[in-house]
Automatic annotation (TrEMBL):
Pfam families: BLH_phosphatase (PF04273), Pyr_redox_2 (PF07992)
Protein name: TIGR01244 family sulfur transferase
GO molecular-function term, one example from the UniProt record: transferase activity
SUPFAM superfamilies, alphabetized: FAD/NAD(P)-binding domain
Origin superkingdom: Bacteria
Organism: Zhongshania guokunii
Keyword Transferase: yes
Domain Beta-lactamase hydrolase-like protein phosphatase-like: 4-109
Length: 554
């Protein structure tokens, strides 16, 4: 935890963990302010978890969430009112930037502007954009720098695209905008939840992954202005681009299920969709000797749509191999109508459903969890077409939260009616802005939202951008490829590979890996080969099994 002092009464920091609260208490902190909305990051504890730890240490908590780059005068005034409490006071967000911005705006009538800027700078926060706002000169801000390509998002899709672009033209000026310090290999969290990987195996420092030749702008994007080819960063800074790539990922909406935020990480409620919770999944699985285990899947779209049932299969495999399967009732509650969207893979999956004696419940959407009473509530349709709520007690429950595009994306001019970046599904170029592309989880192409999809999309986007810079009418097309290695047991995987319309798109000959059947070769690929391929090939511009073919623009 990197605490920065703004004055004798106020400190700020990046995201806190519940384990950090004791240190704040030792420093004498009496009031805690959270300025980060729940669900922004996949490694982010919920405010309720922080609050619980703070209350135990006698610290008063306040939740004043601000969407990145959307610090308004009302929020600043509310922050100023909270500063009237007896301190010391500590505020936090993702990086401390929003908390510092709130402080700066709240002090505009009380401190000289130069003092505000100097204090923030000493703490490591650039308030030059806020200074212009305070001075009433926002319209006069100039772009800090212009880049050939600006990439929003430093996840798998963003870094892979930057690396692929630089492999094609090392002279390009490229900026990757992302505020995160850590980068995660999220496909590995399924294996963390089964005791096969450690969490640390799935994490790297972001700085170590930025491709040589690209600038890393460690900030969050607030708004897009595609008509002026600029993005606004938090703190009111501007960046100008010739071409823009949006690879901002997806938001996990933990608050979309009533009661989930209050109980996640305890009471037997877990999720492999968060870095710090996947180990809790394994703890629950290995300690459960009898009872009822529920696994849930929300309405689509979600990233890695197979992950909810992967957790079920690997848990069932552990209980099966440790003679506990007959003592545990496994139930899978899916908001959708089918086990898997591509029918060719369902027969193999059903064999494991039978093996683990799992009860499949389709058209059941998790809407509420009462953690203290270990009861889940599901909305389902009745025979007459109406809906009803059914309850089910549990000893453990693995939850996949509903998901949306990030808030700053959904409020932008780049999206369709559903809030996803609106692209042509074959070229991944924006439908209205010709110098913008999007890929990965954030775009509305109807492919599976997986890392494997981003692996294929990134070289295609890079090839199309290079063609655009040359004025070429040749273009590469994306066929919707996605892959879902369904971990049906420890040591075997059903390797689902498919494209648009459910067309099977196997990468290997059938004699080596028949994707419609569980194979040990696919498990070896998942456990031993894919992680190094991710870190050392995909994120380095080495385009494994991808060769964009340029053809005349359709």
């Amino acid at each position: 935890m990197n605490i920065k002092e703004l004055n004798a009464n106020l400190s700020v920091s990046e995201q806190l963990l519940p384990s950090n609260i004791s240190e704040l208490a030792k420093r004498g902190v009496r009031v805690l302010i959270c300025n980060r909305p729940d669900g922004e990051g996949s490694d982010q504890p919920l405010f309720s978890e922080i609050e619980k730890a703070a209350v135990e240490h006698g610290i008063q908590c306040h939740y004043l969430p601000v969407i990145t780059g959307k610090v308004g005068d009302e929020e600043a005034a509310a922050f100023g009112e909270l500063l009237k409490h007896d301190g010391p006071i500590h505020a936090y967000c993702r990086s401390g930037m929003r908390s510092t911005t709130l402080w700066a705006l709240s002090q505009a009538k009380h401190l000289p502007l130069a003092d505000i800027v100097a204090t923030a700078k000493a703490a490591g926060y650039d308030m030059s954009g806020v200074a212009a706002r305070i001075a009433g000169k926002t319209g006069e801000i100039n772009a800090l720098q212009t880049y050939d390509v600006v990439i929003v998002g430093g996840g798998a899709a963003g870094i892979a695209t930057a690396a692929s672009l630089l492999a094609r033209n090392s002279a390009l000026s490229i900026a990757i905008i992302d505020p995160a310090d850590k980068h995660y290999y999220q496909p590995g969290w399924t294996l963390v939840g089964a005791g096969i990987f450690t969490p640390e195996q799935t994490m790297r420092e972001m700085a170590s992954l930025i491709p040589k030749g690209a600038d890393w702008i460690k900030a969050a994007v607030a708004t897009f202005d595609p008509d002026s080819n600029t993005v606004t960063l938090e703190g009111c800074r501007l960046i100008k681009y010739a071409r823009l790539v949006v690879a901002a990922g997806i938001k996990l909406n933990w608050d979309g299920i009533e009661g989930l935020s209050e109980t996640i990480g305890r009471n037997g409620v877990t999720s492999n969709y968060r870095y710090d919770l996947a180990p809790y999944t394994w703890e629950l699985v290995r300690n459960l000797k009898g009872g009822r285990a529920l696994f849930t899947q929300p309405p689509m779209p979600i990233k890695c749509a197979g992950a909810p049932q992967k957790a079920m299969y690997l848990s069932g495999d552990h209980w099966y191999k440790n003679q506990g399967i007959n003592n545990i009732n496994i139930e899978f509650y899916n908001a959708g109508a089918v086990l898997f969207g591509v029918a060719d893979y369902v027969p193999a999956l059903m064999e494991y459903v039978k093996k683990y004696q799992a009860d499949l419940k389709f058209n059941h959407k998790l809407v509420r969890i009462d953690g203290d009473n270990k009861t889940a509530y599901f909305e389902t349709a009745t025979a007459d077409g109406s809906t009803e709520i059914v309850s089910r007690e549990f000893d453990m429950i693995h939850v996949c939260p509903p998901q949306t595009a990030p808030d700053f994306i959904r409020s932008s001019p780049l999206v369709d009616a559903a809030g996803w970046v609106d692209v042509d599904q074959y070229t991944l170029r924006h439908k209205r802005y010709n110098n913008i592309w999007a890929l990965g989880d954030v775009c509305n192409a109807p492919n599976a939202k997986t890392a494997a999809a981003a692996r294929v999309q990134a070289p295609i986007v890079a090839a199309n951008i290079i063609a655009d810079t040359k004025g070429s009418h040749k273009i590469a097309h994306y066929n919707g490829y996605g892959s879902c290695p369904l971990t049906v047991e420890r040591g075997k995987i059903v390797l689902a590979e498919f494209g648009y319309g459910g067309m099977l798109l196997p990468s290997f000959p059938k004699w080596f890996i028949d994707g419609t059947k569980p194979t040990r070769a696919a498990w070896f690929l998942k456990e031993k080969l894919l992680p190094p391929i991710y870190w050392r090939a995909m994120l380095k511009g080495k385009e494994w099994l991808v060769n964009p073919v340029m053809s005349d623009e359709a």
